[in-house]
């Protein structure tokens, strides 16, 4: 299951973090579909019906586009089938935020876009999942392992992205957070009376990998690396039944426990992602070394990203978010613990 994600990068950072190598080995950098960069809102706590960045083949929008060309689009989470007849998509009586890989060919809502090749990759910093324990649930943040020296698709000295000038503003190779790449399907719905087309997506899920089974029995289908992403998006060369073979449980993710403040989807601040002291948990757990990379990224990430993340979608409840003073105090305490004050309690990784 995947019912909450975080995607905190600003639009230009999403574009840089999404660089990929095509089948010829050339670097490419996707562009945003016209107007979609403005529609996207970064958030530390995204829930279904919010809008997220999605990668798809440019051939869905332009049949003359190169087979290797991808585009970034902003789509709403929760697939609305093209055949849905109501004038208000919120009137759908069943959830389509996730779809099980085992039943993709059994349900018309998913079978139609799958056979049309409407495959996409949902981008996120990571996703949240809850482990049931005693009378409550402990939330975890799950993501790709991060290295301090990580550079997405690191380029050779004089290499530049295909069709893209490399300048000072571009910043060279991406050295920030490695985005999670989740397999999904999308569809295009037009209101019965006419109007703007709504693009929506669903996250495909598979059985949880062994290292995540203690948290939940399902996980998003992860596409690990350029080649898997390329094959999933290439609906021309890779037919639907062949693409389904990419949907496997993968033990390539790490995780750490986070505060229960993420339980309320209105809470939208860096504290949603920050590791909590395992000594304070009822059920002990181990925090990976990647959480230190997260703290560094949250502390030193671009001001533009931090500002943009505060401008998130309106949420369901009216609970007051933490004040700036509370955020600063919490961040300082956690940084102190990670840097050594909690060393006697922190398990080795």
Automatic annotation (TrEMBL):
Q: Is the keyword Zinc in the record?
A: no
Say which domain of life the source belongs to: Eukaryota
EC number(s) stated in the UniProt entry for this protein: 3.4.-.-
Q: Name one GO molecular function term.
A: single-stranded DNA binding
| Record keywords | Covalent protein-DNA linkage, DNA damage, DNA-binding, Hydrolase, Lyase, Protease
Which residue ranges does the record annotate as region Disordered? Answer: 18-50, 297-349
SUPFAM superfamilies attached here? Answer: BB1717-like
Q: Does the keyword Protease apply?
A: yes
- Entry-linked Gene3D superfamilies: SOS response associated peptidase-like
Q: Name one GO biological process term.
A: protein-DNA covalent cross-linking repair
Q: Where is the composition biased (Basic and acidic residues)?
A: 18-41, 307-322
Among InterPro entries, the record links this protein to: SRAP, SRAP-like
- Job description of the protein: Sensor of abasic sites in single-stranded DNA (ssDNA) required to preserve genome integrity by promoting error-free repair of abasic sites. Acts as an enzyme that recognizes and binds abasic sites in ssDNA at replication forks and chemically modifies the lesion by forming a covalent cross-link with DNA: forms a stable thiazolidine linkage between a ring-opened abasic site and the alpha-amino and sulfhydryl substituents of its N-terminal catalytic cysteine residue. The HMCES DNA-protein cross-link is then either reversed or degraded.
Similarity section: Belongs to the SOS response-associated peptidase family.
Identification of the protein by name? Abasic site processing protein HMCES
Q: Which organism is it from?
A: Tachysurus vachellii
């Amino acid at each position: 299951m995947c019912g909450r994600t975080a995607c905190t990068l600003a639009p230009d950072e999403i574009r840089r973090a999404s660089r990929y190598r095509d089948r010829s080995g050339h670097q490419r950098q996707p562009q945003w579909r016209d107007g979609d960069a403005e529609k996207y809102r970064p958030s530390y706590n995204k829930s279904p019906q919010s809008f997220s960045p999605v990668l798809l083949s440019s051939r869905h929008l332009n049949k003359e586009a190169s087979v290797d060309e991808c585009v970034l689009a902003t789509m709403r989470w929760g697939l609305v089938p093209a055949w849905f007849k109501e004038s208000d998509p919120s009137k759908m009586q069943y959830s389509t935020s996730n779809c099980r890989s085992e039943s993709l060919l059994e349900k018309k809502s998913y079978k139609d876009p799958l056979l049309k090749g409407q495959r996409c990759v949902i981008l996120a910093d990571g996703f949240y999942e809850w482990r049931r324990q005693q009378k409550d649930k402990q939330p975890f943040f799950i993501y790709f392992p991060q290295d301090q020296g990580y550079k997405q698709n690191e380029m050779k000295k004089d290499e530049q992205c295909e069709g893209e000038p490399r300048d000072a503003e571009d910043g060279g190779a991406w050295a920030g957070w490695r985005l999670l790449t989740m397999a999904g399907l999308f569809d295009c719905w037009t209101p019965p009376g006419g109007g703007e087309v709504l693009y929506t997506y669903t996250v495909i899920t598979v059985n949880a990998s062994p290292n995540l089974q203690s948290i939940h029995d399902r996980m998003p289908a992860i596409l690990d690396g350029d080649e898997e992403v390329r094959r999933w998006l290439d609906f021309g060369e890779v037919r639907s039944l062949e693409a389904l073979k990419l949907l496997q449980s993968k033990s390539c993710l790490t995780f750490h426990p986070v505060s229960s403040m993420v339980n309320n989807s209105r809470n939208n601040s860096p504290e949603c992602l920050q590791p909590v002291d395992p000594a304070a948990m009822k059920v002990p757990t181990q925090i990976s070394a990647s959480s230190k990379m997260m703290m560094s990224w949250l502390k030193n990430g671009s001001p533009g990203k931090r500002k943009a993340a505060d401008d998130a979608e309106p949420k369901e409840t009216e609970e007051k978010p933490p004040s700036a003073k509370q955020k600063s105090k919490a961040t300082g305490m956690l940084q102190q613990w990670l840097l050594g004050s909690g060393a006697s309690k922190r398990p080795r990784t």
